[in-house]
């Protein structure tokens, strides 16, 4: 361990500076020896054990933002082939963030390497960003859904109904949907209804969109031309417009805010049915395969959870899912085959390693986990595999 000179010289201001320096050094040493544990719930039991989650927060990532930059609600995170970490945020959600580009990419060491976004020639740019995805060619897909303040009946909300595709440098490639055309309904083959997430199937060259605040469906388009391919609702059925009828003790047949979509290496499509607190699994043609209501043991001892985003573990079988739970302010780890929750980590708070409304998550090729926080969180955190 490095030695620290504790001889005090000079006035009180110099002493305070040395105290702050000591705190920083102590923090650095703590990271090196793994002293940034995370509260964890394991296999349905409440626990504050430190190492069971297998992850520790890196409080020094990313590096300091450029002068004058500030993040608003961070509503998307993704990684590319170089392990750059991409985020999208809402500059209009935080006073002082208006001049910060909405799309920012960090290198693995946390330096800003790309930043862009906003209105341009040939495409619409909405007023409320929602979601980011980087495909196999490192093209960057960004979505728009919701409004400030959020009112599902207001045009300021429903106008945000499109997905855009760009190169990593921010060159426009494709638009799906139109700003201002968000109420055409669940059967539309042209327009969206406040999309929430994007996933691209490389082999089929298809883009899957969870179309989820106004509409309640998954819709698939050609990833190059934007031509409509198919869409479906809960259980693979035809989604309907209007209010959802109650169904007693049975689970609802319709999605309620499908908030994420992602595809596994064995050809299955996973959807976060956030409003119904469940995950549904489909074949690529929309055939229903399975479902499970999230049943994590939460910090307060209750059982439940709300799936906001899904990422797959890096092993060959993708044997586990990572699930962001913005309602419970935590991350759940599920066995993919059964969708059973096996671990949960995180608690509500703003210190390093705690969460305030975790909205999305992503893994890089080294297994590092990145979590984007919306609402009052307004940040992205990095978690490394604990030794």
Account of the protein in words:
There is one protein chain. The protein is mostly beta strands. It has two domains: 1-33; 39-385, 6 Propeller (Neuraminidase). 6% of the residues lie in helices and 36% in strands. The protein has two helices and 27 strands. It has a five-stranded antiparallel β-sheet with strand order 1-24-23-22-21, with no helix packed on it. Strands 2-27-26-25 form a four-stranded antiparallel β-sheet, with no helix packed on it.
Please describe the topology of this protein.
Blueprint (H helix, E strand, L loop, with lengths): L11 H21 L7 E3 L12 E4 L14 E7 L5 E6 L12 E4 L5 E5 L12 E6 L5 E5 L10 H4 L3 E5 L5 E6 L17 E7 L4 E6 L5 E6 L5 E5 L25 E6 L5 E5 L4 E5 L5 E6 L2 E2 L5 E2 L4 E4 L7 E6 L4 E6 L4 E6 L12 E6 L5 E5 L5 E7 L2
Explain briefly what this protein structure is.
This protein is mainly beta. It has helices at 12-32, 155-158; strands at 40-42, 55-58, 73-79, 85-90, 103-106, 112-116, 129-134, 140-144, 162-166, 172-177, 195-201, 206-211, 217-222, 228-232, 258-263, 269-273, 278-282, 288-293, 296-297, 303-304, 309-312, 320-325, 330-335, 340-345, 358-363, 369-373, 379-385.
């Amino acid at each position: 361990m490095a030695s620290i000179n504790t001889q005090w010289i000079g006035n009180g201001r110099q002493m305070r500076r040395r105290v702050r320096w000591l705190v920083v050094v102590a923090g650095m040493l703590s990271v090196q020896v793994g002293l940034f544990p995370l509260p964890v719930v394991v296999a349905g039991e409440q626990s504050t054990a430190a190492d069971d989650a297998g992850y520790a927060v890196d409080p020094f990532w990313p590096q300091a933002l450029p002068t004058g930059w500030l993040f608003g609600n961070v509503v998307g995170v993704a990684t590319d082939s170089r392990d750059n970490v991409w985020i999208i945020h809402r500059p209009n959600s935080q006073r002082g963030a208006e001049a910060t580009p909405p799309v920012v990419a960090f290198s693995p060491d946390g330096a800003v390497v790309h930043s862009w976004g906003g209105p341009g020639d040939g495409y619409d740019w909405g007023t409320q960003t929602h979601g980011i995805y980087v495909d196999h060619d490192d093209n960057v897909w960004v979505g728009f859904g919701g409004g400030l303040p959020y009112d599902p009946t207001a045009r300021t909300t429903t106008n945000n109904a499109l997905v855009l595709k760009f190169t990593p440098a921010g060159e426009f490639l494709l638009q799906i949907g139109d700003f201002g055309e968000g109420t055409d309904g669940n059967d539309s083959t042209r327009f969206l209804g406040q999309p929430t997430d994007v996933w691209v199937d490389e082999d089929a060259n298809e883009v899957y969109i969870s179309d989820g605040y106004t509409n309640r469906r998954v819709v698939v388009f050609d990833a190059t031309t934007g031509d409509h391919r198919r869409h479906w609702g809960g259980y693979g059925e035809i989604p309907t417009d209007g209010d959802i009828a109650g169904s007693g003790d049975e689970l609802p047949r319709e999605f309620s805010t499908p908030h994420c979509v992602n595809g596994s290496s064995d050809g299955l499509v996973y959807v976060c049915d956030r409003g119904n607190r469940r995950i549904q699994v489909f074949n690529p043609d929309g055939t229903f395969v399975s479902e499970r209501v999230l049943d994590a043991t939460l910090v307060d001892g209750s059982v439940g959870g709300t799936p906001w985003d899904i990422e797959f573990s890096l092993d060959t079988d993708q044997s586990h899912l990572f699930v962001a739970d913005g309602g419970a302010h935590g991350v759940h780890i599920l066995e993919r085959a059964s969708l059973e929750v096996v671990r949960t980590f995180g608690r509500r708070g703003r210190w390093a390693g705690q969460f305030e409304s975790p909205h999305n998550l992503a893994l890089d090729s080294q297994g590092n986990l990145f979590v984007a926080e919306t609402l009052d969180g307004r940040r992205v955190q990095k978690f490394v595999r604990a030794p």
